[in-house]
Write a structure and sequence with these properties.
With 536 residues, the protein is α/β, with parallel strands linked by helices. The protein has helices at residues 2-16, 56-73, 117-130, 168-180, 205-208, 236-248, 264-269, 298-314, 330-334, 336-345, 355-372, 402-409, 419-422, 443-448, 458-463, 479-486, 489-498, 506-522, and strands spanning 20-21, 32-35, 41-43, 48-51, 86-91, 101-106, 109-114, 139-141, 144-148, 154-160, 185-189, 191-192, 195-196, 252-259, 319-323, 377-381, 394-397, 413-416, 464-471.
C-alpha cells in the first residue's frame, strides 16, 4: 500500500513538473487579449528565439527573454530547434504606438512585433509574466493575439536617495522592478537638506561636506539623535552606470536637483550661496528649513548653471527636475541682496503672488533658460505655479490634483503624483506599529485614481502626460522596507499608467497581482502582503 501511495505521489509530482499553461492575465493588464483558433505553442528547452533584426537593442531584447524564461521555470534554452518552435522578435512600422506591441501565438510560432525595440520589450514583459511561476519542463501557450499599448506616455516612480542613501545594487533592483511593471521613468531625487548625493567635479565640497550629516534624529521628531555620522554619494561613473542599466531596460532616468529650497547639503559646503552666509549644517532631522539659496547673489545663478551642466553631461534625459517645492521665502524677505534683485527686476506682488514668489519664478525660469539653450526642459513641483513660469515647463502635481489642473489651464504639461494616491511613504494599514511619516494609503486607494476622467476638460486630456508614485525616505531605510512600501502599490499605479481606465477592475487586479507576487517572492522582495489576504 505504501508503495502504491508513493508511486501515486511521484506520478502527481511528475505531472506537476510537466506542461503548464501560460496565463496572459498579467499586470498591467494588456488592452486586448483575444483567444484564437489553432494549435497551442509549446515552449521547452529546444525553443529558438529568433531576432529578426540586426538592431543591438533587439538582440538585447532576445537575451532578456532568454533570462526571463529561465528565471522561474528553470527552462534553459539549448539553442537546438528540434521541433521547430520559434519565438520571433521583430520590428513592424504598422504597430501604431511607439511603445505598443502585438503578440501572436499559433502552432509552432510566437511572434512579438513592435514599432520600436521598446515596444517589443513590453511584449517580452507580458510573455514573461504569463509564464508559470514554478519549475516546469515545458509551457503551453494557448493560441492568442494580444494587441497592447500604454494609456500614458509617462509612467514614473521616484526614489529619494538623499534622506537615505541606497546602494547601487538596490538601485539596479529598483530599476528591474520598474521594468517588470512597464514603467519607463526613474525620477532620481539626489539632493536634500539631509545630504547631497551627486558628485560634481567643480564643487567637490558638495560631496566632501554636503553628503555627510553628523547624526540622525531617532524616530519621529523625538529630539533624540543617534550620534552616528551618516553619508554616501554616487560618483559620476556610478550615475552613468545607472543611466545605462536603465536605458537597456527602456527606462529614462530623470535626475532631480532640488532648488532653491531643500539645499542645506549644498549650503553647508558653500555657505556664501545662502542669504545669511551661514554657518549651516547638513540637516539632522526632517522637515522644511528656512535657509535656502540666495536669489540675489549672482554666484548662486553661476552655481546652478555649473551644476546643471555637469548633470546634463551625465543624464541624457530630455527633462531635468529642478524641484521648487517647499522653499520658505522668509530669508529673502530680509535679505538686502534678494530685495535689491526684486527691485532691479521690477517684481511686484501680482496675481495673488508676493514679490518673493515672483523672484522664485524668476530663479526657476533662469535655470529653465539655461537648460533650454542645451535642448533640455525642466520639471518642477507644483509650487512653481506660484508665479509666471516659462512655457515648456512641466509641472509635477503633488499637493493634490489641483496643480495638474491649473498647469493644464495655463497650457503646461503635467504629471500627476498626488499625495493622497501616490505617496508611498504613507502607511498601508490603519493599525501599524512601524514608524513612518504618517498618512493612510491602502493599495485600493492607489488603484482607484483616474487622472483624466472621461468628462475631463479637453486641456486636461491634452496636457496630463502621465502618473508617478513617489517614495520619500525619511523613515525608509534599506531594501526590505523600501520594497514593503513600494509593492504592490507601484503595480497599482503602473496599471493606471498603462491600461485604459474602462478595463481596470480591482478584483481582477488582485487576482493577477497575486500571481505576480510569486515572482516578487522569488526575487526576495519582502512586499506588503495585505492585498492577498482574504478580508473578513
Ligand atoms: C514634496 O513632496 N515636497 C514634493
Ligand atoms: Zn538672499
Amino acid at each position: 500500500m505504501k508503495k502504491i501511495l508513493l508511486s501515486v505521489a511521484l506520478m502527481i509530482a511528475s505531472i506537476s513538473l510537466h506542461a503548464t499553461d501560460a496565463n496572459y492575465q498579467v499586470v498591467p493588464l494588456p488592452q486586448s487579449i483575444t483567444a484564437e483558433k489553432g494549435a497551442a505553442f509549446v515552449l521547452d528547452a529546444n525553443t529558438i528565439i529568433n531576432v529578426a533584426s540586426n538592431d543591438e537593442a533587439m538582440r538585447r531584447n532576445g537575451e532578456f527573454l532568454k533570462q526571463y524564461i529561465q528565471e522561474k521555470t528553470g527552462i534553459v534554452l539549448n539553442g537546438m530547434n528540434k521541433k521547430g518552435n520559434t519565438i520571433t522578435l521583430k520590428l513592424n512600422a504598422k504597430v501604431e504606438n511607439e511603445e505598443g506591441y502585438v503578440i501572436t501565438v499559433k502552432g509552432k510560432n510566437i511572434t512579438v512585433e513592435g514599432k520600436t525595440p521598446r515596444g517589443v520589450f513590453y511584449g517580452i514583459q507580458t510573455l514573461r509574466k504569463s509564464l508559470p511561476l514554478e519549475k516546469v519542463e515545458n509551457v503551453t501557450f494557448p493560441a492568442t493575439r494580444i494587441a497592447d499599448y500604454p494609456r500614458f506616455a509617462y509612467r514614473g516612480t521616484m526614489l529619494d536617495c538623499a534622506r537615505h542613501y541606497f546602494k547601487m545594487s538596490f538601485i539596479k533592483e529598483f530599476i528591474d522592478m520598474l521594468a517588470l511593471h512597464n514603467i519607463n521613468t526613474f525620477h532620481w531625487h539626489l539632493t536634500e537638506d539631509q545630504g547631497w548625493r551627486a558628485q560634481i567635479d567643480r564643487y567637490p565640497k558638495l560631496t566632501e561636506v554636503g553628503s555627510k550629516r553628523a547624526q540622525t534624529v531617532i524616530g519621529r521628531m523625538t529630539g533624540l539623535f543617534d550620534e552616528t555620522p551618516y553619508g554616501g554619494y554616487y560618483t559620476k561613473d556610478e550615475m552613468r552606470e545607472v543611466v545605462k542599466y536603465a536605458a537597456d531596460r527602456y527606462i529614462t532616468v530623470i535626475p532631480e536637483i532640488d532648488m532653491p529650497g531643500h539645499m542645506l547639503g549644498a549650503l553647508a559646503a558653500y555657505p556664501e550661496l545662502g542669504c545669511t552666509g551661514g554657518p549651516y549644517k547638513v540637516a539632522e532631522q526632517w522637515g522644511v528649513f528656512p535657509d535656502i539659496l540666495c536669489a540675489g547673489n549672482p554666484k548662486t545663478y553661476e552655481f546652478v548653471n555649473n551644476v546643471l551642466d555637469e548633470i546634463i553631461d551625465i543624464f541624457p534625459s530630455k527633462y531635468i527636475h529642478i524641484g521648487g517645492d517647499e522653499a520658505p521665502r522668509i530669508r529673502w524677505q530680509h535679505c538686502p541682496r534678494c530685495q535689491a534683485e526684486i527691485k532691479r527686476l521690477g517684481l511686484k506682488g501680482s496675481n495673488g503672488f508676493s514679490a518673493e514668489a515672483q523672484l522664485q519664478a524668476h530663479f526657476m525660469n533662469q535655470a529653465a533658460k539655461h537648460l533650454a539653450e542645451k535642448g533640455r526642459y525642466i520639471i518642477g513641483w507644483d509650487e512653481i505655479l506660484e508665479g509666471d513660469v516659462d512655457k515648456g515647463t512641466t509641472v509635477m502635481s503633488w499637493r493634490g490634483v489641483n496643480g495638474g489642473i491649473e498647469a493644464a489651464k495655463r497650457g503646461l504639461d503635467a504629471i500627476m503624483t498626488p499625495v493622497n494616491y501616490y505617496y508611498l511613504d504613507y502607511y498601508q494599514r490603519k493599525d501599524n506599529t512601524m514608524t513612518l511619516i504618517g498618512g493612510f494609503l491602502p493599495v485600493e486607494t492607489t488603484y482607484g485614481y483616474n487622472p483624466v476622467p472621461d468628462d475631463a476638460a479637453p486641456e486636461l486630456k491634452k496636457h496630463i502626460k502621465g502618473v508617478q508614485a513617489n517614495l520619500w525616505t525619511e523613515y525608509i531605510i534599506g531594501r526590505d522596507l523600501a520594497f514593503f512600501q513600494l509593492l504592490p502599490r507601484v503595480a497599482a499605479m503602473a496599471e493606471t499608467g498603462w491600461t485604459e481606465n474602462a478595463k481596470k477592475d480591482f478584483a481582477s487586479f488582485k487576482e493577477r497581482e497575486t500571481r505576480l507576487n510569486e515572482l516578487y517572492k522569488h526575487f526576495g522582495w519582502k512586499t506588503c502582503q495585505d492585498l492577498y489576504k482574504e478580508k473578513k
